[in-house]
Design goal:
The structure holds two protein chains of two kinds. Chain A is mainly alpha-helical. Chain A is extended and about 80 Å long. Chain A is 70% helix and 2% strand. A two-stranded antiparallel ribbon of chain A has the order 1-2. Chain B folds into two domains: 122 residues, no CATH class; 76 residues, no CATH class. Classes of the chains: A mainly alpha, B mainly alpha. Chains A and B meet through helix 1, helix 2, helix 3, helix 4 and helix 5 of A and helix 1, helix 2, helix 3, helix 4 and helix 5 of B.
């Protein structure tokens, strides 16, 4: 059998096993779920071995003599001392190195990119210079760079930040600003939700497209046969799982 | 001994933290080289961290199989999937294709991992829809705003939605590019301030939970 045809049968079968969860939690779904975890972990292990061990450690040491790379290997090995109770404290050196380095790298970059740059983009000029006429205030909502949108963004950022600022009581004007922040947050959560749903729908369409493609005769119609097989298996499983009625008398 | 077990790790954190925070302000080739090397080092150490996680998974399922607990057969399937993928992956030197031809590892990726992953996330569409039905009923003004924003964005992302509500595409873009980005920006600023504060606490030894428990 051709590898692609075999692949079509396997891919269709696994897709249908996962879809069987829409009926209810069942052994077929659990089988596919555990296979998914196993294959994913195996894939990550192979990729990490290839990227880290082969390309970042072995090849540079063997080809270029970069002996210094043995230091991170040693630090990494220290992590594994967690499995030896008496030497477990040595793993702290590895964690101290990673966490210290991560914290050090994060401070200036976070301040620069995520605080100062974001504030700079928020506090934009509210009026633009346009030709010889002088200053204008552009009202085009569809242009994210328009002055009206700049004002809305400034108001949105300020009100949301204020909503999360609990050092003063949200009363009077503060309450109104905080409530505006909530409205902005709700719109954002709604937009995020809608966006996620559509992304999932896109994945669903992709899977259904594959199922339609694999129902072709050139693949041996795996979609049709395996759908029937899956439905049959679900019927058998559900009949076996049905509890017997208590006997009378 | 307390110095080796407790104080030296804190000293390592302090020195590496200050060193790499200072590196940002030194625009010298040597400083850039140090950052490049350190990034490579982090990747290598991260590879060893993976061993910790995988060992834990191995152990958990091995115990299940050994004791023949409920569902131990699924653990066997997990093992088979994992070991099988590792075997074909090593056989193919971690390459999905060689000279344009798909390897066995590429076959596992294309015909097992991609469909499994895609379908697993695709079925979430159904559960999100049912969860939304239960939780999105406009019980308050805020919930109504959330519901309206979600519907507009969903309608604006598909041709049918734009056909039914012609303005939905533009309004959806405005919501995503202006209202949504202002909220994301505010949250990002807040989270970043927290991250900087936490990083400073870690560097100066105020926050030590990453070192784990233990008597010393």
């Amino acid at each position: 059998m051709d590898a692609t045809v075999l692949g079509a049968w396997v891919a269709t079968g696994l897709t249908l096993l996962i879809f069987s969860f829409l009926y209810k939690d069942n052994p077929l779904f659990k089988l596919a779920e555990h296979l998914y975890v196993g294959v994913s972990v195996g894939y990550i292990i192979v990729k990490t071995y290839d990227t880290v061990i082969v390309h970042l450690v072995v090849k540079p040491i063997m080809d270029n003599g970069e002996i210094a790379l043995l230091i991170p290997v040693a630090i990494g090995m220290l992590m594994l001392t967690r499995y030896v109770p008496k030497a477990a404290w040595m793993s702290r050196y590895a964690f101290a190195f990673i966490v210290g380095m991560g914290a050090g790298l994060a401070i200036p970059r976070t301040i620069s990119s995520f605080i100062l740059k974001q504030i700079e983009d928020t506090v934009r000029p509210l009026l633009s210079i346009a030709g010889p006429d002088g200053l204008t205030f552009s009202m085009n909502l569809l242009n994210p760079a328009s002055n009206l949108n700049a004002l809305i963004i400034l108001f949105g950022v300020s009100s949301v930040l204020f909503y999360f600022f609990f050092s003063i009581e949200h009363s009077g004007t503060g309450r109104a600003v905080a409530r505006t922040g909530i409205i902005f947050l709700m719109i954002s959560f709604g937009a995020g939700f809608g966006y996620t749903v559509m992304a999932r729908m896109s994945l669903l369409i992709g899977r259904l497209t594959d199922l339609i493609e694999f129902s072709d005769a050139s693949y041996g119609r795996p979609t049709i046969w395996l759908t029937l097989l899956t439905i049959g298996a679900l019927i058998v499983i559900s009949r076996r799982a049905r509890p017997e009625p208590p006997q009378e008398g | 001994m307390i110095f080796l077990r407790r104080q030296l790790p804190l000293l390592i954190t302090l020195i590496t933290g200050l060193l790499f925070a200072g590196q940002y302000y030194v625009p010298h080739p040597a400083s850039e080289q140090m950052l490049t090397s350190a990034t490579k080092w982090l990747q290598i150490i991260g590879g060893f961290a993976l061993i910790l996680g995988v060992t834990s998974l191995f152990h958990q399922h091995a115990v299940k199989i050994k004791r023949q607990e409920a569902g131990w057969g699924y653990s066997l399937i997990l093992y088979a999937g994992m070991l099988g993928t590792i075997a074909v992956g090593l056989w193919a030197n971690g390459k999905e294709s060689v000279n344009g031809a798909m390897t066995a590892f590429g076959w596992v990726y294309n015909f097992m991992m991609v469909p499994l992953q895609g379908t697993m996330f695709a079925i979430l569409a159904f559960f999100i829809a049912s969860a939304a039905y239960r939780s999105f009923r406009a019980r308050s003004r805020e919930a109504a705003v959330l519901l309206v924003a979600a519907v507009i964005v969903m309608m604006g992302r598909v041709p049918l939605g734009e056909y039914l509500i012609p303005l939905s595409g533009d309004v959806s873009s405005w919501i995503l590019n202006v209202l949504n980005s202002s909220v994301r920006r505010a949250i990002l600023i807040g989270v970043s301030l927290g991250a900087v504060a936490l990083s400073l606490k870690i560097i100066f030894g105020v926050e030590r939970s990453y070192l784990g428990g233990g008597k010393e």
